[in-house]
Design goal:
The complex is a heterodimer of chains A (163) and B (792). Chain A is α+β, with helices and mostly antiparallel strands. Helices cover 37% and strands 17% of the residues of chain A. Chain A folds into two domains: 3-84, Roll (Ubiquitin-like (UB roll)), CATH 3.10.20; 93-159, DNA polymerase, domain 1. Classes of the chains: A alpha+beta (163), B alpha+beta (792). Bound molecules: FE2/S2 (inorganic) cluster (FES) (2 copies).
Chain lengths: 163, 792
């Protein structure tokens, strides 16, 4: 037990606008911190090895695979997860577009996919199709064939809806 | 309000839950006191387990249960009971589960696993299915002869590696070959591939001291899980409770039964605490079953005019180490294994063969993706050799109303039209004038050559003759309904289609139809399995019946209250009214829980509609000839593709895929198109990238996303165009048929055919990697060169 205590560290991190101070083990991933400590299970684990993108969250404006980031590394940073995207029950335009185009089937890749799309549109509101494909190329989806997802992102860009 | 929902493009009803992260999967769940389990797997493909020492693991603080195979006197299986929960006596594939630990945390379980010592004595493995059926091949299951199986349907051969031999005999092939103008013989192969659901298999199970087993699982078929566990553990069905929340993709890989029994046994050993097992991605590839591999040998005899006169087919399925589900893939591919063609003389043998590979199970297409690679490449090769256009050639031979299938089934007007599907896609890619030799040479010199190709497909649900399902429609106090079914919507969108059907029949707004999301064997109505693209068809029919039952009950009440005979009552706008006097009505809400007269008298009671559907008229097939009726409905389809090949690198670019399916009736276009686009892209994975690769001693090399590539957003064609033909299925709900699996079938063959069309090389093995294309080009250049030299 004592050894494990030693391997713990206190971090302060802002998640979806709320600041948390927690003691976490040094080998805990940000993904596990979000899911197991904060109960934000919207962020998924598809591989745990940085290869599928299901765990994508936005850290200081950039998309990251939260399974590759240690919780202690996230200390002092700002994290946005899928749970922080809709406000007061109102969906973000990207979420709405995913519904319109049905860029969703089983839904397991969806949170990560939406976060990658959000990070893209935040830094490049009018991406080309190639740029969209690039931005989500690290997010695997086995169900949709990507077309409806790409169309959803294009649609948001064309409508110029922002938030 | 006639036909207001059927045919509408309505987004999935659970969309909000999924785009916000609210939807809960088993991965996301935890129960109080829950333990975490890890599995120790075999490093050998085939080895005797000499000893297992788990004492160190058991001593580790926080470890609550350690299990090995010898403690588990159970056997499991869907059609053939050949599986142990943990390997017993010997291991049959690298990656097989040998021991398991349940502990307070994943970390502790992982450390405990490392403390288990297993001594193995390697045995000679067998990997190639064709070798595995030779006389002297090592046996994967020495005790096959003692295994239980579904009698009258399957045919395991004791003392061999043949888990099932399906035989089909129609007409006289020898005579057919004798009458043939030419005969073509070829071999085609396809490796094993993985389903790759984004959510790996996950389960939480508790085996309470009172003898009940409670399970949350990412399964496609809650009732199958319950049934198989009941049989294996000899526990009454009523004591097993299976619940399925959201499931992150299945594609067949979550049908049958997987980690549930292991989690339950660990729980029992840990004194009843719930145990959670989540497969790692590596285990998903290496331990959980994948799709079987196939070697296909086809001999086809044709007349000079291009009629197929005889076909002799042998399918050698690489079932891997277990075949409890795999045997039915061999069977289904047997009875439909000549494709949608009318052929008078057919001899077909489909062998499901044990090897020391990870084992196979259902995967979208259920054998048809595999054998259509062979059938549709073969058809193109024959047409070309005969000098007949491959479209014309197929049109001469395709099934049409009046044709007899290879099992003796008569195709009817309402069966569906494969010829129309083919015509649709061929027109869409403007197939016609072919390039001249000069034009081809010119393109070749430029380095990039374009080509076109196409292929047809068919598939019927592969299921036992007695497959059934049921549905319940419960009215709520406010006149809305809850619809309860036990097929699982793991992404296909079936629940939305079923809600449309319910709303249509009940003539009420779809917003008032709530599909109960979590499947629950304690409270939900029975359904066999969610597989085989049968859920919309059978579930839809059950819901229609449940809705009529509910309507009938409401009319009963309304008849008394309105003092009108039942048959003069009509429904609409959530009301039951008198046909000739619509002002005389009761609302659904007024009768939902029973009608109350002004003086307080009440009649009726809560309205609960019941509906059921059982497959009709299916027969077991004759064991010697395979004749009979195996198919509830046939969904036909065709794909056509346009490609470009870089002749210097072998790189292939898929420019366009057009696909057409005779779905009978499109219930929801948006969702149907989604199934097609998703299925086509999955088919592209099988075509171009995916396949298990092993070391010579049978260790799987492709057990992570680094080594096993599935299509990404950058690998999809510019255009994927879904088209539909509608030949109503008379016994389908509103004429509809299933279309979940079909989009994946035959994509590869269309691409293979287009490659020949572009550069004149035949690819016979999947996947069609750039390297394979490049090698084929080099080989052709060498051949052409040699021919030239010889001539010169
Ligand atoms: S779970 Fe992080 S990339 Fe797959
Ligand atoms: S929707 Fe299932 S993986 Fe993308």
């Amino acid at each position: 037990m004592g050894r494990e205590e030693l391997l713990k560290k206190e971090i302060t991190v802002t998640v979806n606008g709320e600041t948390f101070t927690k003691s976490v083990s040094c080998n805990k991933t940000l993904l596990s911190f979000l899911r197991d400590d904060l109960y934000l299970t919207g962020t998924k684990e598809g591989c745990g090895e940085g290869e599928c993108g299901a765990c994508t969250v936005i850290m200081d404006g950039k998309p990251v695979n939260s399974c590759l980031v240690l919780a202690v590394e996230a200390g002092g940073h700002e994290i946005l997860t899928i749970e922080g995207l809709s406000r007061n029950g109102e969906l973000h335009p990207i979420q709405e577009a995913f519904i319109r185009h049905q860029g969703i089937q089983c839904g397991f890749c969806t949170p990560g996919m939406i976060m990658s799309a959000k990070a893209l549109l935040d830094r490049n509101p009018h991406p080309t199709e190639e740029e969209i494909k690039d931005a989500i190329s690290g997010n695997l989806c086995r169900c949709t064939g990507y077309k409806p997802i790409i169309n959803a992102v294009k649609d948001v860009a064309e409508r110029g809806e922002k938030r | 309000m006639s036909n207001s929902y059927i045919g509408k493009s309505i987004p999935r009803m659970e969309s909000f839950e999924k785009v916000t992260g609210i939807a809960k999967y088993v991965h996301d769940m935890a129960l109080p006191g829950m333990l975490y389990a890890k599995i120790l797997t075999s490093p050998h493909a085939h080895a005797r387990i000499v000893s297992i020492d788990k004492s160190e693991a058991e001593k580790l603080p926080g470890v609550k249960a350690v299990l090995v195979g010898s403690e588990l006197p159970y056997k499991l299986g869907l059609y053939l009971i050949d599986k142990d929960i943990l390997a017993k006596g010997k291991v049959r594939y690298q990656g097989e589960a040998v021991a398991a630990v349940a502990a307070e945390s994943e970390e502790i379980a992982r450390r405990a696993i490392e403390l288990i010592k297993v001594e193995y004595e390697p045995l000679t493995p067998v990997f190639d299915p064709v070798e595995a059926i030779q006389e002297d091949a090592p046996l994967v299951h020495e005790d096959l002869g003692s295994y239980d199986y579904m009698k009258g349907v399957f045919n395991p051969i004791a003392g061999t590696n043949i888990a099932n031999h399906f035989k089909l005999r129609k007409g006289d092939v020898e005579k057919g070959f004798k009458d043939s103008y030419r005969i073509f013989e070829n071999e085609y192969t396809m490796p094993q591939v993985n389903h790759v659901p984004l959510e790996t298999h996950a389960v939480i199970a508790e085996w309470t001291k009172s003898g009940r087993i409670n399970i949350y699982t990412s399964a496609q078929s809650p009732f199958a899980v319950r049934n198989l566990m009941s049989i294996a553990f000899k526990i009454p069905h009523s004591k097993i409770h299976v619940r399925v929340p959201y499931v992150g993709g299945g594609f067949g890989g979550k049908a049958g039964i997987h980690l549930e029994p292991l989690a339950a046994c660990l729980s029992k050993k840990a004194g009843g605490r719930p145990v959670k097992i989540v497969a790692s991605r590596e285990e998903e590839f290496n331990t959980i079953p994948s799709r079987q591999g196939l070697t296909a040998r086809i001999k086809t005899g044709v007349s000079e005019e291009g009629r197929v006169l005889a076909q002799e087919i042998v399918y050698y399925w690489d079932a891997g180490a277990y075949a409890d589900y795999g045997v039915n893939i061999g069977r289904a591919s047997g009875y439909s294994g000549a494709g949608p063609y009318e052929i008078e003389n057919v001899k077909l043998d489909s062998y499901t063969i044990y090897t020391n590979h990870p084992f196979g199970t259902a995967y979208r297409g259920f054998g048809h993706v595999e054998f259509f690679w062979a059938i549709e490449r073969q058809m193109d090769i024959i047409a070309r050799e005969l000098g007949i256009d491959p479209y014309e050639f197929r049109m001469k031979n395709l099934l049409k109303p009046g044709s007899i299938t290879i099992t003796g089934e008569k195709i009817r007007e309402n069966t569906g039209r494969v010829d129309k599907c083919l015509k649709t896609v061929v027109e869409a890619i403007e197939w016609g004038e072919q390039k001249t030799e000069e034009e081809k040479q010119e393109e070749f010199k430029k380095g990039k050559v374009t080509g076109k190709g196409f292929a047809v497909l068919h598939k019927a649900p592969a299921m036992p003759t007695f497959t059934s399902c049921s549905a319940i429609i419960k009215f709520n106090e406010d006149g809305s309904v809850n619809v309860v079914v036990s097929g699982v919507d793991y992404g296909q969108g079936t629940y939305t289609a079923l809600a449309q059907i319910a709303a249509e029949v009940l003539k009420m707004p779809i917003e008032k139809v709530h599909m109960v999301w979590e499947c629950d064997t304690d409270t939900g109505p029975y359904d066999w399995q969610t597989v085989a693209s049968r859920f919309t068809f059978m579930g839809g029919n059950a819901i229609i019946k449940a809705a009529h039952d509910a309507i009938d009950q409401m009319k009963e009440v309304a008849s008394a209250v309105l003092r009108a005979p039942k048959d003069e009552l009509e429904i609409g706008n959530e009301k039951i009214y008198v046909k000739h006097n619509p002002d005389e009505f009761l609302t659904y809400r007024e009768v939902a829980m029973g009608y109350t007269y002004p003086n307080g008298n009440s009649i009726g009671g809560p309205i609960i509609g019941r509906g059921k559907y059982i497959a009709q008229g299916l027969t077991n097939l004759d064991p010697e000839t395979g004749q009979g009726l195996p198919a509830l409905d046939w969904t036909y389809g065709a794909h056509a593709v346009e490609i470009e090949v870089d002749v210097r690198t072998g790189e292939l670019e898929l420019k366009k895929v057009v696909s057409a399916f005779d779905v009978g009736k499109v219930v929801n276009k948006l969702l149907c198109e989604g199934q097609v686009v998703g299925g086509v892209v999955q088919g592209i994975g099988t075509s171009l990238y995916e396949g298990f690769v092993y070391t010579p001693d049978g260790r799987l090399l492709t057990n992570s996303f680094t080594d096993y590539k599935i299509p990404t957003s950058k690998d999809i064609p510019d255009v994927v165009e879904p088209l539909f033909v509608e030949t109503p299925q008379l016994d389908g709900p509103f004429g509809a048929r299933g279309v979940a699996e079909h989009p994946m079938i035959s994509v590869h063959a269309a691409i293979g055919n287009a490659i020949y069309n572009a550069i004149g090389v035949d690819i016979m093995e999947l996947p069609i990697t750039s390297e394979r294309i490049w090698r084929a080009i080099k080989e052709k250049e060498r051949r052409d060169q040699r021919a030239k030299t010889l001539k010169g």
